[in-house]
Amino acid sequence: MRSITKAILVGGGVVFAGWVGWGIYSTKKAKSVPYERLRTLNGSELRRYPQTMLVETTAPNQRTAFRRLFRYISGANQSNESVSMTAPVETQSGASIAMTTPVRSDATGTDAETVRMAFYLPAEYTPDTAPEPTEDEVTLVTEPPKTVAVNRFSWYTPEWRVTRRTRKLLSTLDREGIDPKGEPYLLRYNDPWTPPFMRRNEVAVAVAEEN
């Protein structure tokens, strides 16, 4: 019996180590959207982002939204170019585009009737070079440079946790006299197989420019 228990513990330890190893590997290999850190605010942070390109969709649920966007970066676009993989996505035809983290969605969209989700495209893409989607439900979006406030957290992103973090961020901005612009949204940086304690999530909202 002791031998069986020991074997189970050893096997579980190997699986856990492999899981953590994957989390480290996938996190390091993913290219993130660049930004300038301006200052910290009681556990939150102000950042300055350059102009960014996103591919976006609105769907009945997160799975449908994610699949549409994944099809786009896997070749469901009107370009014939070949793009070197940053986070590898292999395709048989058409263009393949690196999936840049984070994945963006409405901050409270987890359990809503619809969810708007977007993938950030690699920095080398511009409004003139980003390939057009072939699906009507998928669109390209150009975001101008902006200042954003974020609050970072780990583990999974159920609606109650996202809501709590969003309230904390908005409360911090209110105390600092900083005005939000638009609605908060959720940023997720990891693939679904990353251990929850290694995940990076952020609630974010654009804010008025500081003098």
Q: Any overview of this molecule?
A:
This is SOUL heme-binding protein. It holds the Pfam family SOUL. This protein has 211 residues and is α+β, with helices and mostly antiparallel strands. The protein has one domain: Alpha-Beta Barrel (Multidrug-efflux Transporter 1 Regulator Bmrr, Chain A). It is 27% helix and 30% strand. Strands 1-2-7-9-8-4-5-3-6 form a nine-stranded antiparallel β-sheet, covered by helices on one side. A hairpin with a 2-residue loop joins strand 1 and strand 2. The longest helix is centred in the N-terminal third of the chain and has 28 residues. About 7% of the residues have low confidence.
List the topology elements.
Elements: H1 2-29, E1 36-41, E2 44-49, E3 52-59, H2 62-73, E4 100-106, E5 115-120, E6 138-143, E7 146-153, H3 159-176, E8 180-188, E9 201-207
Antiparallel strand pairs: 1-2, 2-7, 3-5, 3-6, 4-5, 4-8, 7-9, 8-9
Using the CA coordinates, give the radius of gyration: 19 Å
CATH classification, class level: Alpha Beta
Compute the separation of the termini in Å: 69 Å
Structural class: alpha+beta
The shape, in one word, is: globular
CATH architecture: Alpha-Beta Barrel
Low-confidence stretches: 81-94
Query: CATH fold name, please?
Result: Multidrug-efflux Transporter 1 Regulator Bmrr, Chain A
Mean pLDDT level: 78
Strand order of the largest sheet: 1-2-7-9-8-4-5-3-6
What is the number of helical segments per DSSP (H or I, 4+ residues)? 3
Quaternary organization? single chain
User: Into how many domains do the coordinates divide?
Assistant: 1
Task: State the helicity in percent bands.
Answer: 25-40%
State the order of secondary-structure elements, H for helix, E for strand. HEEEHEEEEHEE
Largest sheet: 9 strands, antiparallel
- Classify the beta-strand content into a percent band: 25-35%
Number of strands: 9
